């Protein structure tokens, strides 16, 4: 079992969600987050250039069994990228997940996902 966490641009959420559904991955958690990476988000405010510290992003978390790791990554990569790719398109993190427990039934492991 793995936990896939993707940080993407807000305007790519619908495309990523649709791509995941096409890959038969329908159980996702979405959060609105802020952060800063390499992108330089310079704005004009009252005639002065300012660089905000944090940029709005979307965080998607998906718990998957090992067979679904690569299809999920491929779906996110294809749908989250702007054109040929630009700075700020996001990141994908894959981490091992020791245990998953469904609260309603107390199922454990891959069947609880």
Q: What distinguishing features does this structure have?
A:
about 35% strand; single chain; Alpha-Beta Plaits; about 110 residues; four-stranded antiparallel beta sheet; alpha+beta; elongated
Structure annotation, total helices: 2
Model regions low in confidence, pLDDT < 50 over at least 5 residues: none
- Main sheet: strands, sense, barrel: 4 strands, antiparallel
| CATH class placement | Alpha Beta
CATH topology: Alpha-Beta Plaits
Mean pLDDT: 90
Q: Give me the Rg, rounded.
A: 17 Å
Strand arrangement, largest sheet? 2-5-1-6
Polypeptide structure, described:
The structure is a single chain. With about 110 residues, the protein is of the alpha+beta class. It has one domain: Alpha-Beta Plaits (2-Layer Sandwich). It contains 2 helices and 6 strands. It has a 4-stranded antiparallel sheet, with helices on one face. Strands 3-4 form a two-stranded antiparallel ribbon. Helix 1 packs antiparallel against helix 2 (about 70-80). The N and C termini lie close together (about 10 Å). The mean pLDDT is about 90.
